[in-house]
Structures are given as C-alpha cells and as structure tokens.
Amino acid sequence: MATTLADDLRPLHHPKTWIGKYVWSQDHKVIAVQYGVTAVGIGLVALVLSVLMRLQLGFPGSVPWIQPENYLQLVSMHGMIMVVYLLTALLLGGFGNYLIPLMVGARDMVFPYVNMLSYWVYLLSVIVLVAGFFVPGGATGAGWTLYPPQAITEGTPGYSWGIVSMLVSLAIFIIAFTMGGLNYVTTVLQARCKGMTLMRMPLSVWGIFTASIMGLLAFPALFVAAIMMLLDHLAGTSFFMPTLFSFGQTTDTVGGNPILFQHLFWFFGHPEVYIVALPAFGIVSDLISVHARRNIFGYRMMVWAIVIIGGLSFLVWAHHMYVSGMNPYFGFFFAISTLVIAIPTAIKVYNWLLTLWRGDIHLRVPMLFAIAFIFTFIHGGLTGLFLGNVSVDVPLSDTYFVVGHFHMVMGVSPVLVIFGAIYHWYPKMTGRMWNKTLGQMHFWFTFLGTYAIYMPMHYIGILGVPRRYFALGETAFIPDSVAIANAGITIAAIVVFLAQGLFFINMIWSLFRGPKADPNPWGAASLEWQTPDTPPVHGNWGPKLPTVYRWAYDYSVPRPERDFIPQNEPPA
Amino acid sequence: MSQAVARSGQDDDIAAGLREVVDDWSADQEVFRHTHWGKAMMWIFLLSDTFIFSCFLTAYMTMRTSATLPWPNAAEVFALTIGGQSIPLILIAIMTFVLISSSGTMAMAVNFGYRRDRKKTAALMVATALFGAMFVGMQAFEWTKLIEEGVRPWGNPMGAPQFGASFFMITGFHGFHVTCGVIMLLIIARKVFRGDYDRSGDYSAVEIGGLYWHFVDLVWVFIFAFFYLW
Fold first, then answer.
1. In this structure, what is the dihedral angle of CA atoms A91, A92, A96, A98, given to the nearest 10 degrees?
2. Do the Cβ atoms of A77 and A86 come closer than 8 Å?
3. Most B-contacting residue of A3, A259, A261, A275 (CB-CB within 10 A), to test interface
4. CA nearest B44 in A: which residue?
5. Could you list the residue range(s) of the whole structural domain that residue A46 is in?
C-alpha cells in the first residue's frame, strides 16, 4: 500500500533539468523558498504603501499625487497584502513547507505535485491582485475589510474594477491555500517518521499544523463572501445590498443584508489572526528553547494551549462588530469568549518566560527577535483586553488605538518571529552564515522602531483620532500634539523602512559570500538540523529515514561533548 | 464514602480513557492507521468543503429571514404541469431519487473495487457518472424553466430577489461539484478499465472518488431540504 513510509526513494520524482529542479519543482524546500520570495516581494510592495501613507499623515501634502481616494487605496491594499499575501503565505506556505517534512522526518509533503500547484496558483493570485493597481479606476479603496455596500458602490475608489481584482484574487488565493493546507495537515497526520509521535513534534510543527486546519475551516467563509460580493457587483444580485439612495437615485438592489458580509468576513477574519499567530507561537517557542539551552517549559500545556486557542478563535468573530449594529446581546457572548482566549494565551507567555528563567541565554540575533516578540505580543495582547470589552471598545472603535493594537499584536509580532526564524534557519537553508553585526543592527532598528511607531498611535487613538482619514483638518478635539506625534511616527517608519535594507543586504550577500555554516550551528535537538546534507537535498534523509527516540527539547544535559541530545539519537 | 471512591474511580476511568485516546492518536507515524494518504486528504478536503456549503446555506437562511420582500412559495415555484395537472416538487423528487441512486451504484463500485473486479467496478462507476450527468441535465432543465418564468439573479416576479440569486448560486455551486465529480468518475473508470490499478495494486482511487461522490449527495440532501421543503 502506498501508505507506508518505506525507506525507498521511488515515489520521489527527481528532476534532471535546472527548470525542473528550481522552477517547476516538487521539492518542498524549493517550493518553500518560492513561496517565501514571492510573499516577501509582495510584502515589500505593501511596505512601500505604508510609507506613502505615513508621509501623507506625518507631512500632509508632501507627496502631491496622494489624493484622498489614493490614500484609501493605499490603506486597503496595504492591509490585505500584509495579512493574507505576506503573513499567511509566508508562515504557512513558506515555513510550513520548509519545516514540516524536515521536522517530522518525511521525505517530502504527501502530494508534492499538489504542493507545486499550490505555489503556482498562489503566484497567480498575487498577479491578479497586483493587476488591481493598473485597472481603470485603480485598486479598491474600501478598506481591507471590503465592507459592502460601500465597496461596490459608486464613489468608492476602485468600486468598478479594483474590487473585482481583489475578490477574484482572494478566491484564487483560497484555492491555492487549500491545496497547500491539505498537504501540510495530511503530512503531519500520516507521514511522520518512526518514533515521531504527535507529542514529540516540535512546537513549530504544532503551530503550523493547527493553523493549517484553521485555515481550511476559516477561508471557506471568505470564499463564500467573495463569491457573493462578486455576484452582487457583476450579476446584480442583492445579497449584501439593501436599497440605497445614491447620487440622487435609488439603486435597483433590494433587501440585502450588509451585516451578513461582516459575519462571513470575520468568521474568516478572526481565525485568520491566529492562523498568523499560531505558527509564530510555535516557532518562537523553538527559538527560545534552543537559544536559552532549556527545554520548553510545559510542553504539553503549550500544545494544548495552541489547540484550545485554535478552537476558541472560531467563537469570537463578532468582537470586530460591536459597532456594526448587530444585536447588542451578542456583544455579551463575544466579549466573554474573547476574554477567555486570554487564558491559554497567558499560559503560553508564562511558559516562554519560564523557559528563559535561569536559562543559559545566548543573545544571538534569532533570540533577540524571539524575545522582542514576547514584548510586542504582551503589549498588543494587553490592548486587546481593552478592545475585547464592549463598553471600552465602543469609544475606541475606529481610532488609532485599534491601529496600534493590531499592528502590535498581529502585524509586528509575527514579522519579528519571521525575521528570527529566517536568521535561525538560514544556515540550514543555504549552508552559509549571515553577518552578525548587520543582523544586530537590523534587529535594534526594527525593534525600537516598532515602539517608536506604534506606541504614539495608542496615545493619539485615546485622544479620539479616527483611522483611515486622509487628513485630520481643523478639529477642536485634536490637539497640536497629534501632528507632532504623527510626524515622529512617520520619521520612525522611514527609518525602519530603510533599516530593512540591512536585512536584505545581509541575506543576499551572505548567500554568495557568507562563511560556510556548521550543519547545526545552534546546537539544536530537533530533526531538521540532523539531515545528512546541509542544505538538505531532495529526499532530505539519504537512503534511510531517521528514527526518533525522544522529544525535541533535551538541552543542557551534563555531557562533555555537547549539551543537547538530538531527537534521533538512540537511548544509551 | 464508598460512593465517593466509586465516583472518583469512575472519573479516573474517564481520564485514563481520554488519555488513551490521545495516546492512540498521537502514536508515531500515522494518526489514521493504514489509511491511504489520498483518502486522509480527501476527508480533510471534504471537511473544508463542508464549511463552504455551510457558509452558503447559513447565508441563505440569513438572507431569507432578513429579505424585505415576501419569499416565493416553493411548492408553487417548483411545480411541473404534467397532463394539465400541477404537481408540486415532482421534478426535484426525481432528481433527488436519481442522485441518491447514484450513491448506491457508487457504493457497489467501491465494493467491487475492493474485490479487484475490474469490469464491474468500471461499469458501475460509469453508471454512477451517468446518473450524475442525468442529475445535471435535469438541473439545467429546471434552471431553464425558472429563467423562462422570469427568475433572474437580480429579481423575479414571485418576490424577494434573493430567492433567485441564492437558488442559482447555491444549486449552481453544487451542480459544479457534481459536474467535476462526473468527470473525475469517468477518468477513474477509464483507468480501472485499462487495468492501471491492477498493475499498481492500488484501487484506492475508486474509494476516494466514492467519498467525494457521497459527500456531494449528502450536501444535496441539505440543499433540497432548505430550498424545496422550507
């Protein structure tokens, strides 16, 4: 039966040509890099968009071509790209692809061909998305949440073509993700090597695995919402469209339900937060454990916390809708379920801290990013407690407080983990080591810059400054200090933006000129560092699959030669 | 006291039982023992697809309850006039019967697949595909009838525009699934008939195709209930 994990290489298709190896590749590691490069590429576009927004906010009028409608387009595209096309694609398509087979001891994903298709369909979705910038009327300016009726009503930027490109691109992305996600989940469930029980898997795999399951269950809601809005727009249906009085005329639509879209969107949107966060949780757990030379504190609790957060996140979506006009009694339920999530999340944070406690901490660059993640995540999480409560949320809704909160908790936190993870696994992926000084500089600019950008946003948010505004104008309740804060934020944002150059220079330069890396430079116990080749070749494990005898966290053992026990070392 | 002991003993049993379940599931290599990778993947895909259809149907229910115009009466809209007499739901009854029957032939095909009976498996799969094609054909007939009566995505003479819109969207999405299934079944049947699976010794494709087909049937039962019986 084809189910066995037989040690033979037969099922793998070894390509002969360069194109077969690196373009139409079915090797999970190459697909991971393709996913990663594409995601970072489109992420850079979104980063540029954010700098343009900051220029307008900090120094109004400094970029003359940014008009109010352009500003809305920048906001919308920045948000959607960052959340879906960068973070989801990079954490699941990139790290999921690279790490799952290596960490669970498989030769590849269970269906390499489907995996390859997943990447190419993802690339298509990115192309369709980018096409939105160039269609008549430009990209959609409906905000990243794309709420109807405004998203497809005359007067909104990109209401005619931009929104079509966005919705079609999302539908294509969901198809791509489904193909990838099925692979990730099935590989974890069915293709682990001998001895690799679920409760011996590194937490990275647990996080990516749970997030993939969540993606498979949450993206359908967005898919349905996208199809229905496309029909509303192109076929004239009234799913989300009530009768509107617009430009002196009544629309043909009748009796639609705009709140329905919000429910569908957030039934996807809230799990999406954790689809991005859980892989980051998992990866950061491994980074902290390796670089603090301590076993992760409360491994079982960490696993259950991931699973429970994943489950609960499907029950909280309407906390994004307190001001939407839904039945106020819902707020009661959703506020409680929202605050309950704080418990497993707090377990995780405490366990990270207790892993660090009395550890042999090596402040290498990946570890710096991991610790920075704990800071930003706690800060973002605490403001989440404010916003989860209905009565506190109502006045803070749609202010910069919200912007500061979610950028802290689901923007910067996963990004810091992504940086940490890239620095951490780079030696394994490329066989070369990056430059330490450049890495540290990149870290400090990014980390301190994060606070310089988002801390003042909380302050101007509490003052009541609304988000998504092109300019604040003359308003009595907005003091002059807001303008100063905005200018400061913009300067910090530009510095952080430029500092990312250090990262790219470091990565590209090291790829060609970096010193040769040790196969296991950090002394990590998990399986991906024990491959016979660095970087691992197609098939990963040479003639024989590894056998696992222990969990991935045996660090600081009192032995003369090395202080850790690899997962595949037989018991003495 | 003995009661308390007995109860705590029971609790321990439950706890121990749960722990065993976890241990079983998390044992090494495979969660679902001796399950074909493709089969596991199809199950997970179907779970995801269930969420798509659930979202469609939940959205349908929401729209139906919040529509401002009256909802058309299903018994009248979906009636056929045969021999001068209007018979409610007759077409859909036949369609549903055909689709459920196709699940029967599919189950038989899977059974013969297990027994490595090449010809019977292929024949039953073709029969299933024909039933499926018949279903899609009747659906096309029903759509044509509704369109002739003036039902459009943007409105209809009977009442709420959401009626026609959601009907076309959801039955269309389901019909698309059936059509994909028919194509898939024919491809697999051809491979069965050619003996591809006898050579590889692996008939799993038949069963995996069957899983998908039964799922599409099951979804239809819900769509049938929500559109025609509500």
1. -70
2. no
3. A3
4. A182
5. 29-240+256-530
Q: β-pairing, B79-82 with B85-88? A: antiparallel
Q: Is residue A4 part of a domain?
A: no
Question: Which chain B residues are Cβ-neighbours of A195 within 8 angstroms?
Answer: 28
Distance, CA of A262 to CA of A267 (rounded, Å)? 8
Confidence check: pLDDT of A293 > 60: yes
Chain B nearest CA to A451, separation (Å): 39
* Domain at A404, CATH number: 1.20.210.10
One-character DSSP codes across B24-90:
HHHSSS-SSTT--HHHHHHHHHHHHHHHHHHHHHHHHHHHHHH-SSPPPPHHHHTEEEETTEEEETH
Nearest Cβ partner for A216 among B44, B56, B169: B44
Report CB contact under 8 Å: A217, B35: no
Q: What is the pLDDT of residue A357?
A: 94
Cα–Cα distance for residue pair A500/A443, rounded to 1 Å: 9
Tokens of residue A177, six digits: 């993700």
A223 vs B contacts (CB less than 8 Å)? 52, 55
Q: List the one residue out of A438, A558, A552, A548 whose CA is nearest residue A503.
A: A438
This prediction's pTM: 0.94
Residue of A nearest to B42 (CA): A182
CA distance A262 to A229: 12
CA distance, residue B90 to nearest chain A CA (Å): 28
Q: Residue A473, by phi and psi: left (phi above 0), alpha (psi -120 to 50) or beta?
A: left
What is the average per-residue pLDDT within A377-398? 93
> Residue B131: which pLDDT band, with cuts at 50, 70 and 90?
very high
Residue closest to A467 by CA, chosen among A401, A400, A384: A400
Structure token pair of residue A182: 């099925």
How is residue B152 annotated by DSSP?
Answer: B
| Residue A50 Cα, gap to closest chain B Cα (Å) | 33
Quote the pLDDT of residue A278. Answer: 96
Question: Does pLDDT of A49 surpass 90?
Answer: yes
Asked if A257 lies within 8 A of B63 by C-beta distance, the reply is yes
Q: Which residue among A178, A190, A239 sits closest to B31, beta carbon to beta carbon?
A: A190
Per residue in A445-502, pLDDT tens? 999 999 999 999 999 999 999 999 999 888 888 998 999 999 999 999 999 999 999 9
| CA–CA gap between residue A78 and residue A42 (Å, rounded) | 10
Q: Tell me the shortest Cα–Cα distance from B3 to chain A, in angstroms.
A: 32
How high is the pLDDT of residue A79?
96
pLDDT, one tens digit per residue, over A165-221 is 999 999 999 999 999 999 999 999 999 998 999 999 999 999 999 999 999 999 999
How does residue A3 score in pLDDT terms, banded at 50, 70 and 90? very low
CB contact under 8 A, B28 and A192: yes
Do residues A280 and A210 make contact, with C-beta atoms less than 8 angstroms apart? no
pLDDT band for A12, please (50, 70, 90 cuts).
low
Lowest mean pLDDT segment, chosen from A246-255, A461-470, B202-211 = A246-255
Q: How many domains does chain A have?
A: 1
Contact state of A260 with B67 under an 8 Å Cβ cutoff:
no
Q: Please indicate, yes or no, if residue A309 is contained in any of the structural domains.
A: yes
Provide the number of CB pairs (under 8 Å) joining chain A to chain B.
Answer: 149
Cβ-Cβ contacts under 8 Å, A7 against chain B = none
A251 in a domain, yes or no? no
The pLDDT assigned to A20 comes to 78
Q: What is the pLDDT of residue B35?
A: 86
B162 to A239: CB separation less than 8 angstroms, yes or no? yes
Are the CB atoms for A361 and A292 separated by under 8 Å? Answer: yes
pLDDT of residue B25: 78
A16 found inside a domain = no
> Distance between CA atoms of B91 and B134, rounded to whole angstroms?
12
